[in-house]
Each structure stands twice: as structure tokens, then as C-alpha cells.
Amino acid sequence: MQRRISVIPTVILSLTMASCEIDSRVSVDGKNPPSFRVSGSGGINFLRVVNVTDCDKPLLDCPTVWEIEPVEGQISIADLPLVTYAQVPKDFHQTIPANDTPAPALVEGNKYTVYMPTYNANGGGVRFMIRAGKSVELR
What letters, b where the CB count within 10 A reaches 16 and e where it falls short, cover 75-104? Predict the structure, then answer.
């Protein structure tokens, strides 16, 4: 009886830990064009790259240079592939620029933010720039 009682807290703790949200994080691979790796729990409805150079407005009001959405409307972060700027992954479609217009080249020295609002976890993003032909994360 004593052994069965000590197992119950372990099972409850395991179930609690399995259901914990993991904040989303985005990393940049250092290349140009950059690839973005997203980790965490939950899912996304879109991924957006915004030019924040000289933009003193809220992020949502800064110029969006590229945005993609899952064809199904949302995707689990666990199923999200590595995303390379301006290359639309399978099962996604580009919404900005419209009409399949190619995304503009990222400009050396400009600052950008890539982010994606999430559900079932806190969202994430990263600020980066192109410096000496490579993408560099800014802190």
C-alpha cells in the first residue's frame, strides 16, 4: 500500500511536466538569405519578417517584407520545417508580398525582426541584420 501511494505523486508530476508550455524561440543560421529555426511548444498561424530600421512604431506598424502562412491555417512548431527567407516551404503560401511577387533582398546594414505569434505557448522572435554578407543576431 505504501509503494502505491508513493507512485501517485510521481505520476501526477510526470503528467504536469508533460503539459508544460515551452516558450517559442527563433534562431538565425548566419547565412544570407538566413534560415530560421523555431523551437518550443504550441503552434503558429504565420511567420513574418519586418524591417525595423528607422521604425520607431510598434512592431505591427513597421514594414513587413515577407510573410508566410500554413495552408491549413496553423501548424505545430514541432512540425515546422527550417524556414529560409524568401523560400516558401511545402504546405505554406506567401501572403506578403502578394501575388507570388518575390520577396525583396535583405539589405546590408538594415535591421529586421522575424517573429510568429503562437498559440498554446508564448511567442518568440529574433532581431537580426545582414553584416558582411551574413545574417547576425542582434541582442
Answer: bebeebeebebbeeeeebebebeeeeeebe
Q: Which three cell numbers stand for residue 125?
A: 522572435
User: Could you read off the pLDDT of 94-106 as tens digits, one per residue?
Assistant: 999 998 899 999 9
3-class SS at 94? strand
Would strands 92-96 and 35-39 be described as parallel, antiparallel, or unpaired?
unpaired
Domain carrying residue 78: 21-138
Predicted pLDDT of residue 122: 82
> How many domains, the chain?
1
Report yes or no on 102 lying in a domain. Answer: yes
The pTM of this model reads 0.83
- Chain-wide mean pLDDT for the chain? 88
Contact between residue 26 and residue 125 where contact means Cβ atoms under 8 Å apart? yes
The CATH number that applies at residue 65 is 2.60.40
Confidence of residue 86 (pLDDT cuts 50, 70, 90): very high
For residue 92, the SS3 value is: strand
Q: Select from 125, 127, 90, 124 the least CA-distant residue to 106.
A: 127
